[in-house]
Amino acid sequence: METVFIDGSRGEGGGQILRTSLALACVTGKPLHIENIRAARRNPGLAKQHLSCARAARQISGGRCKGDTLGSKVLDFEPGPVRSGDYHFDIGSAGSASLVIQTVLPALFLADKPSRVTVAGGTHNPMAPPYDFLSETFLPAVSTAGFSARGGLVKHGFYPAGGGRLTFDVHQWERNSSAPIDICEPDKQIQIHARIYTARLPVQIARRQENLLLKSDLDIEDLEHIEVADSDGPGNCVMIRICGENRTTVFTAFGERGKPSKKVVGEVGDSAGHFLDSGAAVDRYLADQLLIYMAIADAGEYTTNELSKHLATNIEVIKEFLPVEFTAHEYGKHYKVSCRPG
Q1: Is 193 a catalytic residue?
Q2: Which CATH number fits domain 190-277: 3.30.360.20, 3.40.630.10, 3.30.420.10, 3.10.150.10?
Q3: Above pLDDT 90, what percent of the chain?
Q4: pTM (2 decimals)?
């Protein structure tokens, strides 16, 4: 089978190019050669998290890798047939467990039997989907097209300590009994909920964030504070959950040393407010993650409030592996993204 050549410096030049390429190499069985890995990042090449993604792809497919070392900017990956199983991956750092899960999920959905995947690392990381987003936003969205999995948070892991653990039970794709992804209409009746996580931090931080949330422009129905007892290190994040009859959309901002609570709450509030104002059904992060499942199914559409550079890059990578076409049309404050056979 002909090798797919990917330039990791294209578009947004980050780790998503690697993860999408590994996932679709496993799905299609096509060998992969990728250069300039994470070229646009401050520390280019494979970090521990990205190395874990490559090794996870190799393990589920019985494949072969060359260049799978820390800092490598070039990787050759030759996948074998994807096999179901009980898989365990340890990032060895606070790198995102969610992103390793998202690398192997598409191929495991196409395996002949159910699988279980356990990943040790970070469960709540800046610049990556936290577990809550996976379980409440991402998994319900892909399940509408027959991609069914159930997640579990075994132990919290905040950056930079890590030490968390996620587990996912992955079922076979129900292609013949499922409709394509169709998430175009926003929920008409919604409630807005807030969630604050703190770990190994003074309770005053959560109290301050609670007060700021209640004074915000968002009409928050209820607010919960989860004081995490099982974390290896300190951590803080604030979530806005927009809950409708059909879906829940989770927005997150992370606290860190020297970052005022006002800025944390402002970030998550602005993200949620922009989404609500747009009339879209899918936020910018889910929009990016749904593309690969629409491509596997040869169909699907959704509306989103932003066409990010991340999304555009992901589309170009997907088209290197699968014969599909994507279109995007602007409708006022949002866009409709559609997929069809190429």
Answers
A1: no
A2: 3.30.360.20
A3: 96
A4: 0.96
